[in-house]
Amino acid sequence: MNAPVASPLLAEPLSPHVRDWSAFAEPRADGTVHMDLAVEGITCAACMSTIEHGLGVVPGVAKARLNLTTHRLAVDWDPAATDAGTVVRRLENLGYRAHPFDPARRSAEEEAEAKALLRAMAVAGFGAMNIMLLSVSVWAGNASDIEPVTRDFFHWLSALIALPIVAYAGRTFYRSAWRALRVGRTNMDVPISIGITLTVGLSLWQTMRSAEHAYFDSAVMLLFFLLLGRFLDHNMRRRTRSVAENLAALRADTALRMAPDGTLGEVPVSRIDPGDRVLVRAGERVPVDGIVEAGLSEIDQSLVTGETVAAPAAAGERVYAGTMNLTGPLTVRVTAAEAGTLLDEVNKLLEAAAQAKSRYMQLADRVARRYAPVVHLTALVTFLGWLFAGAEVSEALVVAVSVLIITCPCALALAIPAVQVVTSGLLFRRGVLVHAGDAIERLAAADTIVFDKTGTLTLPEPSLIDAGRIDPALLDRAGHLAAASRHPLGIALAAAARATRAPETAREIAGSGVEAEIDGVVHRLGSPAFCGVCDADVAAVTALHPDASLVAYRAGAAEPVLFAFRQGLRVDAAEVVGRLVRAGYGIEILSGDRPDAVARAAAALGIDRWRAGLTPAGKIARLEALKAEGHRVLMVGDGLNDAPALAAAHVSLSPVTAVHLSQAAADAVFLGERLAPVADALAIARAAKAAMVQNLWISIVYNLIAVPVAIAGWVTPLIAALAMSGSSIVVTVNALRLRWSAPEPTAQRGGTLDGGRPAVGTAGAGAVAAGEFGRA
Amino acid sequence: MDVLVYLIPIALGLGFLGLGAFLWSLKSGQYDDLDGAKWRVLSDDDLPDRDR
């Protein structure tokens, strides 16, 4: 694989500006530079060697290693011999689009914590096995004829293994328990820490006085089970996060920064400071909040305000991150949130919502708060009771500690995390990435669902109305020309026509459209005026589709043709809403868009409660009203104007196309063009909540049986070991049951499900098509 | 049963070896890419050219 480094290996960059990837790279101590990239299009193992060898021959690249599990590539190179841009271009030439990770967004702590947990688990597992080996011999010996000397030897050996292991592997629990106690709260780690410490202490004391029973095996086994639960939980969250990070990198949140001398460099958004000037080309999303300094364009604000009609943008106007620049390049001066702007209002509301949101207490913590005092009191009463009944202090102490051991919340501590792990795995496969473990409990409690319209019920991109009725040859020619355009409507038209290559003669005319001369005939695609469509024709189509955007096409002197576009409802929106209504959820639309547009969408979906033209504060007010009526609200939204509502709602979901602020405010993110994940998530969360409650009952029943046995003083290490592992296995199996009983992912069913698609439209200026906004 | 005095420490020592091996493999990053590792074992680019 030592291909000679031929000269055409590295082609010129496609984009006109200098791609300054160096902001993504991190210098290392040994003089090399390191960069992590998310790579698109990795399908099989062959890609691995293609990429690694392909980069290996680039002079200066010291190491390239692709992680096939996470689809991430780590590259080290010598900054004197090559640069980041060369690496990215080389990957592009190999056929892979790569997006560097913004170093500011990556978290190395997660990795380190996962490894620490795995190490602790390995150590505890080693200890549990070896101590169990010794313990089983002692139990067998106790039943037959073990000599006290041998038993003491075994107990001392167990102590020798257990003490360092308990000190090392249990650190996670001690730290967390200490943190909770210091602020005057309890969590599940408090009884765990007390239980483990007392168990080891008692066993050590028993060993010193050559007693028959020691509980080292119980302590270490308990640790092992608990660490296993923690590790699985952590691993699941890490997997979700890694996918979310890849998605964020693939969205390529970069900005074109304009240096004072006018040169352009592409840098991660996190490196942009207020005061910098940024160039936003037509067809790009505005990466930052700021004020337009130069340029004239139209801005699609649907992701920010929900408003679907494009707003004009000129010097002095304010633009927001996440909006789409439609027609012309803009120079934007970056500003921080200033008083009185939309962003400022959203930030204030977000802060207020985060404070007002009564701190939701997780089910596990609520149980722990009641559990710990009850258990410790029982142990104390047992101790006093045995003393009162005439037992010696040491004897009473042994029984009291055995109560603590048998109630040590092994099953209880696994009951909820086990369900959370299984559930987030199920949700993951259905395209729902859960940020917080307790989101599952809160999802299960929701009884009312509030949708945002634009970008949530509808698709974020415009789609061609009634593409099926348009003459395929016409669509083909128009789409061919549209491929030259960067305007979202042009991109949508090209996608509808499945056109990828633009005519070579095509040139973009700013603010108007695209023009190309093909075989001596001038073809034009763009605004109706640009193509010479008369106002009457435009009015006729507008009357038919009031919220449609129009694009005209004209070939030479032929009659111009109009194409109508609209942000269509998600393919399965009507079906999903129907499913949710049947499941008994109250459904409402809160939108920032105009009333007529919202009314049409609501009618198509069969939703009778809707409000339009709402500000972020208006959305929150409505949520508060619903809360006051006793409803638990699930908010589903994507816009900047939804972010405060997402934070204020009991639980919230947002599509992956949402603006950053909203994704961060939401409890979970769903992928794909369908709405089905919302319904799936609710159904799975309800099943998960039921399993959690079952598991808690299993733990309680276990304790009701085990505690009297312990109080009576009948517990031996053998019984403790059997009871603990038995109950842990039962709750884990009960959690796994969810996997088998969960509904099949609905996302795969689609493809032919076109029931809700806005299959309405027009071909040709006067042509009329029937049907409005879906046939739902 | 005197034999136990050295047999059991030997057994423990073997266990320790296993634990040490696991911790070493974890530290050297062998669990970072489980999907890739199964393919890497088949690639022969670690051999000198004449052995391919």
Structure description:
The complex is a heterodimer of chains A (776) and B (52). Chain A is α+β, with helices and mostly antiparallel strands and 776 residues long. Chain A is built from 24 helices and 27 strands. Chain B is mainly alpha-helical and 52 residues long. Chain B has one domain. Chain B is built from 2 helices and no strands. The radius of gyration of chain B is 19 Å and the shape is elongated. Chain B starts with a helix and ends in a 12-residue tail after the last helix.
Q: What does this entry show, briefly?
A:
Chain A is of the alpha+beta class and 776 residues long.
The top-level CATH class of the largest domain in chain A is Mainly Alpha
**Share in β-strands of chain B:** under 5%
The number of E-state strands of chain B comes to 0
According to CATH, the fold-level topology of the largest domain in chain A is Four Helix Bundle (Hemerythrin (Met), subunit A)
What is the count of structural domains of chain B?
A: 1
- Total helical segments of chain A: 24
- The Rg value of chain B, from CA coordinates, equals 19 Å
Distance between the termini of chain B: 57 Å
Question: How many domain modules of chain A?
Answer: 5
Low-confidence stretches of chain A: 1-17, 747-776
Query: Helix content range of the residues of chain A, please?
Result: 40-55%
Order of helices and strands of chain B: HH
What is the residue-averaged pLDDT of chain A? 80
Work out the largest interface and the residue count of each chain.
A-B, 26 and 24 residues
Oligomer: heterodimer
In whole angstroms, the N-to-C terminal distance of chain A is 58 Å
